[in-house]
Write a structure and sequence with these properties.
Layout lengths: L16 E6 L2 E6 L12 E7 L2 E8 L15 E9 L3 E4 L7 H12 L6 E3 L8 H9 L8 E5 L1 H11 L8 H8 L5 E5 L5 E3 L5 E6 L9 E5 L4 E5 L16 H17 L3 H11 L1 E3 L44 H14 L17 E3 L1 E4 L9 H18 L4 E6 L5 H15 L3 E6 L5 H8 L4 E7 L7 H11 L8 E7 L5 H11 L10 E4 L4 H41 L2 H6 L4 E2 L1 E7 L2 E7 L2 E5 L4 E7 L13 E6 L6 H9 L2 E2 L9 E3 L6 E3 L4 E12 L3 E13 L8 E2 L8
Parallel strand pairs: 2-21, 6-7, 7-8, 8-9, 13-16, 14-15, 17-18, 17-19, 19-20, 20-21
Antiparallel strand pairs: 1-2, 3-4, 4-5, 5-6, 10-11, 11-12, 12-13, 22-33, 23-24, 23-27, 24-28, 25-26, 26-32, 27-31, 29-30, 31-32
Length: 718
């Protein structure tokens, strides 16, 4: 995916911000005047421990426009080279430093090949430097193994796949020239890599909505914690270490924390709590403190097929690795058989621990040695405070951005949302499925969508995301659209028209279309738009609550006069859950009105609400499972009864399921019994559909279970 503007592109101090029109949609547009600026690409080397060298790519560009760069002190992109029995590089900088970085790396290796690259962070802008590093490998060197998260594996695979919208010819040629130069290794939390001389690396998947590909790494010998985007600062300082401590860098660390981690405070704090950083002196680890990331269970994912299978490491040349050749062989076997249906990855169960840390090595800013305790404490306090201040309201921001401009606009929108006191979820939809987009929107009280313009069109990933949004029941949610372009800006009005024509009428701000890179003024206006979206979300929620309160008051008043409704409440019902898979989309509907309808064929009736039930469930021949809950296991289902229907990728979150092979329907393993049903008739009963269904298959899951009976005070509630 290409997008106008990148590191080293023209910067635009002049800005015209006006309301125009394109395709019948009013637009906020900016047409800045480009001004050339030379970007220095200096790379400095400094030893930071036994066998470990930092490569610091200096960024003196003081006119970046993302909120986190507002102090205008430049930044650094840090990489770390470990030279033990094996050589390993932690992270590579973006493309502006490609040639200088590869040259410094090659010079420091002194003819040795690079055995491993560990990517704590990856985006397409890094591809140029990755290609330069591969091209600098000695002739005849074995393929370098690139260890990274599953999200990064998908991103790199897309860059290497000819015909993909993201295809990168430069990286492809470097990867393939003279034989395969690299192989991808998909990392799961707890994997280890032995580099020799005591350097045992372990890994922890640290994805957040802002950086889903993020991965922490840890060296057991030096107790160095490679923290990716955490504990960084945007400052182009003369010293590599945190000389001067909080007095010298406190403002920069705090500003970085507020702007980058503040919008994702909840997942960021969970990550820190699970790691449990304990400050130690190097090689002095007290009892009860660990020197590795640990796990209990790990699973493998399906891998890409075709020539991409060869991207993954051959086990015949495997270096020592805790996961072992057997798992790698299983991965390659899965790759050969996966076709186009990757298996679901089993999440690692992380053991809460205390990780011994003598040094924090971040992606940006100084290496932290003198201020670890203070910096970690400040993270805990700030993130906790952000969580306490935020209302129980979440807004989702969905975007795609190759060279950063649309992503920077998303940062501005998020800054405004956060400032207004709402929670923010971010999704880069470039590699997201339609089901993932629909699941992402669940629980959101509003959303924003951002896209670049490519060839006069909306890129396919964003177009598919819009299609997924149109299929949801989110039409009353406040929203906004934004995007960047180089030559023309058709994407933004196209998105706005699609949403408006689909019944999404509650636009919180005018569509924003930006040419090239955001200026300071534009970022402030985007922040203001984020605040407008938050205010409209709060207004809409308040209006809904008011309407619901009035409706309930009328309902209660009418019920007080109607003894029939009170009498209905004495009908005892069981507690059940419908689980279905309609057109490939999972759904879960709590129901209490289930009754046997016939002996032969065995049949039941079940009443489902018209409002909120999944599309297709009430049609003739629809397939579903009915799960009857037993006493003692009704708790989660009762909560579901209050929250209503779930649809999409997160439908079964918090529930243990298995699937029927024939129908694809899931069923709850905690149920007392389950029946596979087919709808044979239906009756309109007013606000519900009464479904007459034939039982095709039945299964008792717990022979000793006693059915949970659901008692009500009256017939106005489930």
């Amino acid at each position: 995916m290409a997008e106008a503007g990148s590191k080293g592109s023209p910067v635009m101090p002049a800005l015209t911000y006006e309301v125009g029109s394109q395709g019948g949609v009013p637009l906020k547009t900016s047409t800045p005047a480009p001004v050339k600026k030379d970007v220095k690409t200096e790379v400095l080397l400094q030893s930071i421990g036994a066998e470990i060298v930092q490569l610091r790519s200096l960024d003196d560009e003081l006119t970046r426009f993302e909120p986190e760069y507002a102090l205008h002190k430049g930044s650094t992109e840090n990489s770390y080279l470990i030279q033990a029995d094996k050589t390993a590089l932690m992270d590579v900088p973006e493309g502006a430093w490609a040639e200088a970085f590869a040259a410094e790396l090659k010079s420091n290796l002194k003819g040795r090949p690079l055995d491993y690259i560990m990517l704590g962070h990856f985006n397409p802008r890094i591809a140029k430097t990755l290609a330069a590093v591969l091209n600098a490998q000695p002739k005849g060197a074995p393929p370098v193994e690139i260890w990274c998260s599953n999200v990064s594996v998908k991103a790199i695979s897309s860059l290497l796949k000819m015909g993909s919208p993201a295809f990168n010819r430069q990286l492809y040629q470097a990867w393939k020239r003279g034989g395969m130069r690299a192989r991808l290794v998909r990392v799961t939390t707890g994997d280890t890599l032995d580099l020799g001389q005591g350097h045992q690396m372990s890994f922890f998947l640290s994805g957040t909505p802002r950086w889903p590909e993020s991965m922490f790494a840890y060296d057991s010998k030096s107790q160095k914690f490679f923290s990716s985007k955490f504990f960084g600062a945007h400052i182009n300082a003369a010293a590599a270490m945190d000389e001067g401590g909080m007095g010298a860098y406190g403002e920069d660390w705090a500003f970085y924390l507020e702007n980058l981690l503040g919008p994702v405070a909840a997942p960021a704090k969970r990550l820190l709590d699970r790691i449990g950083i304990t400050v130690v002196e190097e090689n002095k680890v007290p009892e009860g403190v660990t020197t590795a990331f640990e796990k209990e269970v790990v699973g493998l994912t399906g891998l890409e097929t075709g020539w991409l299978v060869n991207l993954f490491r051959s086990t015949s040349k495997a270096a020592p690795r805790a996961r072992g050749s057997q798992a790698a062989a299983a991965a390659e076997a899965a790759a050969a058989a996966a076709a186009e249906a990757p298996a679901a990855e089993t999440a690692a169960k992380i053991m809460a621990g205390k990780l011994a840390v003598a040094t924090i090595c971040p992606r940006h800013g100084p290496v932290v040695v003198n201020s670890i305790t203070e910096l970690v404490d400040s993270y805990q306090k700030v993130l906790t405070k952000r969580l306490e201040q935020k209302e129980d309201v979440t807004v989702g921001v969905i975007f795609a951005s190759a060279y950063g401009n649309t992503g920077r606009m998303a940062d501005g929108i998020c800054a405004g949302l956060t400032k207004a006191g709402v929670n923010v979820k971010l999704m880069d939809c470039e590699f997201a499925t339609a089901a993932e987009v629909a699941g992402f929107l669940q629980g959101c009280a509003g959303f924003a969508v951002g896209s670049p313009t490519l060839g006069g069109h909306v890129p396919t990933p964003v177009s598919e995301a819009i299609g997924a949004i149109l299929k949801t029941d989110a039409r009353d949610l406040p929203y906004g659209v934004f995007g960047s372009y180089g030559w023309s800006g058709e994407a933004v009005p196209a998105m706005q028209n699609a949403l408006r024509d689909g019944g999404f009428l509650n636009a919180a701000f005018d569509p924003v279309s930006l040419k090239f890179t955001p200026t300071d003024e534009m970022m402030e206006l985007l922040e203001a738009d984020g605040e407008l979206l938050a205010l409209e979300v709060k207004r809409t929620l308040a209006s809904k609550k008011s309407t619901q309160a009035k409706t309930m008051a009328k309902k209660v008043a009418s019920l007080e006069l109607d003894e029939r409704v009170r009498a209905i409440g004495h009908i005892t019902t069981s507690l059940s859950v419908i689980t279905a898979n309609i057109n490939g989309e999972d759904s879960m509907v709590p129901v209490t009105w289930v009754s046997q309808a016939s002996f032969n064929p065995p049949g039941i009736t079940v009443s489902v609400p018209k409002e909120g039930s999944p599309d297709g469930l009430t049609l003739l021949n629809a397939k579903f499972s009915i799960n009857i809950m037993g006493a003692g296991k009704q708790g989660p289902t009762l909560k579901l009864l209050n929250s209503g229907t779930r649809v999409g990728a997160t439908a079964f979150d918090g529930f243990s399921i298995e699937r029927e092979e024939v129908t694809g329907c899931a069923y709850l393993t905690d149920a007392a019994s389950v029946m596979q049903c087919t709808v044979t008739n239906r009756m309109d009963t007013g606000d519900h559909w009464l479904l007459l269904s034939t039982i095709e298959e039945g299964k008792v899951l717990d022979a000793n279970a006693v059915t949970y009976f659901h008692h009500r005070e009256d017939g106005s509630v489930y």
